[in-house]
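Hi there,

I know you've been waiting on this one. I reran it after we fixed the sequence typo, so this is the corrected version. Both the input and the resulting structure follow.
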Amino acid sequence: MLSDTLPEPLIVPRPEHSISRAHISPNALKVLNRLKQAGFQAYLVGGGVRDLLLGHEPKDFDIATDATPEEVRGVFRNCRLIGRRFRLAHVFFGREIVEVATFRGSNAEGGSETEAQVTEQGMILRDNVYGSITEDALRRDFTVNALYYNIADFSLVDYAGGLADIEQGRLRLIGADPVARYREDPVRMLRAVRFACKLGFIIDPDCAAPIRELAGLLGEISPARLFEEALKLFHGGYALQAFEKLRHHDLFAQLFPETDACLARQEHDFPITFVSRGLDNTDRRILEGKPVAPAFLFAVLLWEPVRLRYHALLAEGMASAEAIALASHEVASAQQRRVAIQKRFALPMREIWALQPRLERRQGKRPLVLLSHPRFRAAYDFLLLRAEAGETDPELAEWWTRFQDVDAAERTRMLSSSAPRKRKRRKRKPKAKGEAVAASAGKEAASEAGVATTAQPRNGQANE
């Protein structure tokens, strides 16, 4: 619980700070000014203020006010109220959304059951208790996110020492008890890692110390919310660094338990090399301004448990197509209980996996058919990563690289040189009843996993 002492803020007048309205979204300025004109307090707050002070371009601009969500909607016709856990107002300007939040108050006292709900462990389930700007500042997570830009006089307001922490490159939780703050919202542990990577800050030792012990609290967070946090962690251009910090603090195991277990018993250095190369590839693409598909990212993060299960099923005598389909289904289904990967990403992720065994077969017309597959490019990029990590034969990746670039005549020659010698066909005995049932079950597993050998999947997002 936060201290009841309300500190006097540090107020920095406009001439003494670097934030200019020229660098603030025009639509955010419209919201600030209209709230001020309507008689309400209005402040730019959070990451937008922090990023402007650091010379970064803010991703979005959030606003805090003493107006209730209903009063905000009364000021803006282009407004919609959202949220149950936290009631917010979204003001729409075409594709841009300016988020407006009412100052939060203490949820310890004075809130009705419908306004504030806190578990016995201290986790906040619902929080619509409104208060003053001072209370709002103390309710925020990190000091660097509790800075306010006042539209009334263009000053900066700092209640928690965030300016000093920005100067020192330090990420520090607000309040004297980091354990209580993590218990209020365990996602703050993931946010600590993300901000440390994004800003290049160190996590304050007192705030870092309890993370390993409390990591299991993430099991109480909804898988859908953890999916959003995972995207932020791995799609910000610092995925490899985030992965390393998550593992250091035992947080990665809470998000991807099967992958983490595989990394703990790595074979020939394959798992950690493959994941690291895949995340590094993601970072390079983002820094180069290239698109990155979440399906490809999650395919990288979950491939190792899929690969191990696939080879185990092959050893049991299951056919390749059925084995990869069943392995993919089992791993993806288990993962949904931790991080709920949305269906629009989960299906292409499984297609990328399903194409890996098919890329190994280079005879007949199969390679030509694969070239026209809507997920071929992503599967080929995935194969390159596997070859770089030493998991598969580099010659296979080189063959596919060349096969895409040569003309039709050379492709024919490559296919003929890859064709095996013909063997005399033996007459097959009719299948026994038990074998026919097993074959039917394998086909059902492949169909359930979304890997049909005849039907082409619909177009979707590829890695490029």
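Quick highlight: The longest strand covers residues 96-102.

Best,
R. S.
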